[in-house]
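Q: Given only this backbone (170 positions), what sequence would you predict?
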């Protein structure tokens, strides 16, 4: 079996129409990695696939276009910290919350730098982390503009739906 350009285009269309953020496909020594993200990184082909691609294979490693996901929202904070005491500094902060239950990762792979840290500037399309659900990696966009002032969720931590991941000053 050999992938044609039309096959790859159809796979991209299917990914774009789905709710998944990533697709990894291997067949006949050809590896196809597709990711829907902010465009900061592109899919990379494995070194083992390079010889087969040089031999005239028509498969390409491409990135799927980013499409906004309305279910991943940021909401204003309640203005109260964990102990119940309110502070004027906390009242102005926005929260980036988990759009689903799963394992939260701050970096694209183990040992890599985190997507963002305290002091990082974020925009709505900025990917702030990944949530793994049943071996599927789902990118988490900021959906707000501002500066990260607190990292709440830890790398590798199980997060609940709507759990606060980051606090951001608009």
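A: Predicted residues:
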């Amino acid at each position: 079996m050999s992938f044609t350009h039309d096959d790859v285009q159809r796979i991209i269309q299917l990914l774009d129409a789905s709710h998944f953020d990533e697709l990894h496909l291997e067949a006949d020594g050809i590896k196809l990695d597709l990711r829907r993200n902010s465009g900061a990184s592109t899919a990379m082909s494995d070194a083992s696939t390079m010889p087969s691609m040089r031999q005239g294979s028509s498969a390409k490693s491409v990135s799927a276009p980013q499409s906004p996901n309305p279910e991943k929202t940021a909401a204003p904070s309640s203005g109260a910290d964990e102990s119940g005491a309110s502070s004027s500094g906390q009242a102005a902060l926005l929260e980036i919350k988990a759009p689903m239950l799963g394992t939260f990762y701050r970096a694209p792979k183990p040992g890599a730098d985190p997507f963002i840290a305290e002091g990082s500037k974020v925009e709505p399309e900025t990917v702030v982390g990944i949530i793994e659900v049943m071996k599927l990696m789902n990118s988490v966009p900021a959906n707000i503009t501002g500066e990260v002032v607190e990292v709440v969720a830890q790398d590798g931590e199980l997060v609940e739906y709507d759990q606060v991941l980051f606090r951001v000053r608009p």
